[in-house]
Specification:
Radius of gyration: 18 Å
Number of strands: 7
Number of helices: 10
Shape: globular
Oligomer: single chain
Order of helices and strands: EHHHHHEHEEHEHEHEH
Length: about 240
């Protein structure tokens, strides 16, 4: 995956990585009547029908008088993972050495709202890949998948397709990378990790699904990148500082 010798590319998932929660859970538990969505709706969400169930959740909230602004305001209070703001601050102070992108299965409205938190410089993140979101003329929020079941890794967005596309686009702009550092937690973070090379680093979060999948690939000798598990942002920061 690494294509040159100029910069390090830091790639982050968002939910349970930059922020310490799932965006959809945060909205549902904060705004649904009774503090949780209907069981049938959330069962469909847990079965993998993420965008469909979230669209129904947004309709439910709208029908109960919850405005799109209420939802965005809730997302601005989403908790950041301990130390992650320091990671973003470090990347912002070392733009000559690093590029930073985010790839996430949330949606652009939730994600951009959360990035308005105090102490976060949005411009640090050069590009965001996530599912689509918009607010219609009636003030209701809608979401749509970035991809439509393109890959078995995810029903809504394949990061394994997007990461090499980004690297190629940057190479055309004469920006190349000596190393890719991928930081994530979930199953849909596995696909891009498969394409990483021996000079790259994958950082799966301890206690989450990605680390289990990475261990399987490692046992099968199917992963080339170095594996460095993490739990808090300070561990990610220490790895990134080692490349300056």
């Amino acid at each position: 995956m690494a294509t040159g010798t100029e910069k390090v590319l830091a790639v982050f998932d968002f939910d349970r990585t930059i922020i310490d929660c799932n965006s959809d859970d945060w909205v549902a538990n904060s705004l649904c009547p009774g503090g949780e969505p209907p069981a049938e709706l959330w069962q469909r969400y847990r079965s993998g029908l993420f965008m469909e169930a979230l669209e129904d959740l947004l309709k439910l909230l709208h029908d109960n008088g919850v405005s799109s602004q209420d939802i965005l305001d809730v997302m601005t209070t989403a908790p950041y993972t301990t130390g992650m703001k320091d990671v973003l601050k470090f990347l912002g102070g070392n733009r000559d050495a690093f590029d930073c992108i985010v790839m996430s299965g949330t949606n652009e409205l939730f994600l951009e709202a959360a990035l308005k938190a105090d102490g976060v410089d949005r411009s640090v993140i050069g590009k965001i890949y996530t599912n689509y979101g918009h607010i219609d003329d009636n003030g209701r929020m809608h979401v749509k998948s970035y991809h439509s079941r393109l890959c078995t890794c995810s029903v809504d967005i394949c990061k394994g397709v997007l990461l090499p596309e980004y690297v190629k686009e940057q190479a055309q702009k004469c920006v190349t990378y000596k190393k890719v550092v991928y930081v994530g937690d979930g199953v849909n973070d596995l696909c891009p990790c498969k394409g990483l090379g021996p000079s790259d680093v994958v950082m799966p979060r301890k206690g989450y699904k990605l680390i289990e999948k990475i261990e399987e690939l490692t046992r099968q000798n199917k992963l080339k990148a170095e594996v460095i598990p993490w739990e808090q942002g300070s561990e990610v920061l220490a790895v990134l500082k080692g490349f300056v």
